[in-house]
Specification:
Blueprint lengths: L3 E11 L4 E12 L4 E5 L6 H9 L6 E4 L2 E4 L2 E2 L5 H10 L1 E4 L13 H7 L11 H18 L5 H5 L8 H13 L5 E5 L7 H18 L2 E5 L3 H7 L2 E6 L2 E7 H6 L4 H9 L50 E3 L2 E3 L11
Parallel strand pairs: 3-9, 3-10, 7-8, 8-9
Antiparallel strand pairs: 1-2, 1-4, 1-5, 5-6, 10-11, 11-13, 12-13
Helix pairs in contact: 3-4, 4-6
Bound molecules: adenosine-5'-triphosphate, iron/sulfur cluster (SF4) and magnesium ion.
Subcellular location: Cell inner membrane
Keywords: ATP-binding, Cell inner membrane, Cell membrane, Membrane, Nucleotide-binding, Transport
GO molecular function: ATP binding; ATP hydrolysis activity
């Protein structure tokens, strides 16, 4: 049974005059000990999935799902307290814009120490517990590669550079020793050495502590070397999902192929709104979503039948939604 199990997640955004379907029947699972990559162009809905899982949704967002569960328990039907407890103890999220997710009125040290669950703090007396919190905070910031901990732990969010903010949010997420880490583009804009350091740390935590990770990134080269499985999202729909090795070797969906083919050609992260080298056009706006397969107008394999929405098909643990998939003869 997957730890995180999402089936047919739909998220509609109400903008007052109309509703758009920003996520449409998305399926996503994360198994225990797995690193799953979630990829797709800018605007495909990756961060919306993170918001839906975290439960931090503005009132204009409306969610439905056939299943959205954590270790078999439905996240949608549990009480707010239960959900908060899971987000406090089991699932940690690194949101996409780290600085805006911080409390501007507290120092980094205060925020980090506050995030340590009571049960992980050692000592009986308050000074022992204060020392224990301080020690964990220092060792965690070192782990994520922040040097000069004295300086940064005493700083306020507006006093720190962006890359320290990014690393700090990873520290905030890891300090509660979660079972699942959801990291939304945590290394965007980082210079290569720092990025490698963060990716190595996450891989090590996955291997040594069995930390499961849902990793969102535009950096397909990095992600494809560390993730075990991958889900590809296009325009609010999960179009293909399976083991990373299989997807790299024989992607069935034309969009997955275009994404993967674009990877070796960029040395840095694929910038937002960039055009895929092997696919015309850009991702449509949610107000002008094509009927049938949403990739239709951009797809080199599109035919008449593609005006009908393709169903999800499954071959073992590989799923895809396309009427005319690639590589079928080799399966
Ligand atoms: N608060 C909001 N109100 C209206 N539309 C929104 C809101 N948040 C996101 N959207 C729309 O939902 C779609 C998906 O957005 P999302 O931020 O999830 O994309 P993403 O895949 O995370 O992109 P990126 O890679 O740039 O982070 C976009 O079309 C976006 O404009
Ligand atoms: S269903 Fe048609 S348009 Fe959609 S990805 Fe497959 S071939 Fe392309
Ligand atoms: Mg995003």
């Amino acid at each position: 049974m997957p730890m995180l199990d999402i089936k047919n997640l739909t998220l509609e955004i109400d903008n007052g005059t109309s509703r758009v379907k920003a996520l449409d029947k998305v399926d996503l699972t994360v198994n225990s000990g797995e690193i799953r990559a979630l990829v797709g162009e800018s605007g495909s809905g990756k961060s919306l999935i993170v918001s839906a899982i975290s439960g931090a949704l503005p009132p204009q967002f409306h969610i439905t799902a056939d299943r959205m569960s954590w270790n078999g328990e439905s996240l949608l039907s549990m009480s707010t307290e239960q959900r908060r407890e899971i987000m406090r103890r089991d699932i940690a999220v690194v949101f996409q814009n780290p600085i805006t997710a911080m409390d501007p009125s507290a120092t980094l040290g205060e925020q980090l120490e506050e995030s340590i669950p009571d049960e992980l703090v050692k000592g009986k007396w308050f000074w022992q517990r204060r020392q224990s919190r301080r020690k964990s905070a220092i060792s965690t910031v070192h782990k994520v590669g922040i040097k000069h901990h004295r300086h940064y732990l005493n700083a306020y969010p507006h006093q720190i550079p962006t890359d320290i903010g990014q690393k700090f949010m990873i520290a905030m997420a890891l300090i509660s020793q979660p079972k699942l880490l959801i990291a939304d583009d945590p290394t965007r804009g980082m210079e290569t050495t720092t990025k490698t350091q963060v990716l190595k740390l996450l891989t090590r935590l996955n291997q040594t502590r069995s930390l499961s990770i849902l990793f969102i990134s535009h950096d397909l080269l990095a992600i494809s070397s560390m993730a075990h499985t991958m889900t590809v999202l296009y325009c609010g729909q999960s179009v293909e999902s399976g083991r990373m090795k299989m997807l790299r070797k024989r992607p069935l969906h034309p969009y997955t192929k275009a994404l993967l083919d674009s990877a070796p050609s960029f040395r840095k992260d694929l910038p937002p709104k960039s055009i895929l080298p092997n696919m015309d056009g850009i991702i449509p706006s949610l107000k002008h979503v094509p009927i049938g397969c949403r990739l239709g107008p951009r797809c080199p394999r599109a035919q008449k039948d593609c005006v009908i929405t393709p169903a999800v098909r499954r071959i073992h643990d590989h799923t895809y939604s396309c009427h005319f998939p690639l590589h079928m003869e080799k399966l």
